Amino acid sequence: MASTQPPKALPTPLLTGRDFLGSLDLDRAEFLALMATARAMKAGEFRGQKPLAGQTLALIFEKPSLRTRTTFDVAMYQLGGHAITLNGAEIGLGERERVSDVARNLERWVDGIMARVFLQTTLHTLAQHAAVPVINGLSDTLHPVQLLADYQTISESFGQTEGLRVTYLGDGNNMANSHIQMAVLSGVDLTICTPLGYEPNGRVLMEAAQAGAQVRLSSDVAEAVRGAQVLYTDVWFSMGQEGEPERKRLAFSGFCVTPELLEQLDAGGIFLHCLPAHYGEEVVPEATDHPRSRVFDQAENRLHAQKALLYHLMAGQRVRW
Ligand code: CP
Ligand code: NVA
User: Where in the chain is the domain with CATH 3.40.50.1370?
Assistant: First the structure.
């Protein structure tokens, strides 16, 4: 709902010129400040202001997208800037030319780079060779911008995140890894429930545990879901990782989110999914349409959370034209 109050002054940008390749590029205070900006942006408190006027963000996609593509483009427009989309196949990252050369070209023209890539190392190479902020728009390892929207949505339901019981059910993939990193910042009590053999990245787990995250691994669906405040799932077959489908389907039977499973949550419990959904695999349509589902609020919050992120990373940069 848009505010009827006069627009407020934007906060001081906190992260000018920095990269966002994973949640742990933020500390807890920065995460909370970013969430506050996202809430205010959603409430229309800064409406009409164009803090990124004159700035351009390049959007690179090695994989398909609906939400990431649309929300970054709309976010730049609403902040007064501009976005251009570059198809990965067309620019041939690391094939037509070196990733480092792509970075060294783009930094001469644009003020930020958002990239959806296969390898997390591609993002690190872009960041190393481009002086402008680089944002991870999903890699095989992490999807940190999704988690900003997810935690904005969780905060809308519960007011805060500290101590909430969050259960991620499904593949130990980029979303599972991202939840583990985010547990460091959010202070939730996180259970990652996967079939045996599909656990998340061991290094991500170890680093998050060392940073103080409360994370428990499980393969018992009923026990992991019972009494949780947030249930989260994601596809069994991530983009570019569709190998051995029959073996995987067998391992994941029992890992489908249904209305019956949602009834096992805490009384105020909510259901989240980053989307797209593969109906009949990790979720049924009756679960995304269920009163406990917040999946479309979550999708909306991609816009607000990323506007906050872009504002804090890019506002305060020198406008070059
Ligand atoms: N959740 C998400 O990142 O959606 P897209 O793949 O459509 O961008
Ligand atoms: N794990 C999924 C997330 C999609 C937003 C994938 O990588 O395809």
Answer: 23-142+302-313, 146-300
146 is catalytic: yes
235 C-alpha vs ligand 1 centroid, how far in Å? 11
- For residue 2, the model assigns a pLDDT of 53
The residue to which tokens 């009827």 are assigned: 4
Q: Catalytic annotation on 210?
A: no
143 as an active site residue: the answer is yes
Q: What is the pLDDT of residue 244?
A: 78
For atom 7 of ligand 2, the residue with the nearest CA is 238
3.40.50.1370, 3.30.43.10, 3.30.420.40, 3.30.70.20: which CATH number matches 146-300?
3.40.50.1370
| The architecture CATH gives domain 23-142+302-313 | 3-Layer(aba) Sandwich (3.40)
Mutation test of ligand 1: which of 59, 65, 70, 142 has the most ligand atoms closer than 8 Å to its C-beta? 65
What residue ranges of the chain have pLDDT lower than 70?
Answer: 1-4
Our answer to whether residue 302 is catalytic in this structure is yes
Predicted pLDDT of residue 87 = 94
Are the C-beta atoms of residues 39 and 268 closer than 8 Å to each other? no
pTM: 0.97
169 near 231, Cβ under 8 Å? yes
* Residue 113 near residue 126 (C-beta atoms within 8 A): yes
Gap between the Cα atoms of 31 and 25, Å rounded: 10
Closest ligand by atom to 200 CA: 2
Question: pLDDT by residue (tens digit) across 41-98?
Answer: 999 999 999 999 999 999 999 999 999 999 999 999 999 999 999 998 899 999 999 9
Per-residue confidence (pLDDT) for residue 311, from 0 to 100: 98
Choose, from 302, 306, 312, 317, the residue flagged as catalytic: 302
From the candidates 273, 274, 290, 298, give the one annotated as an active-site residue.
274
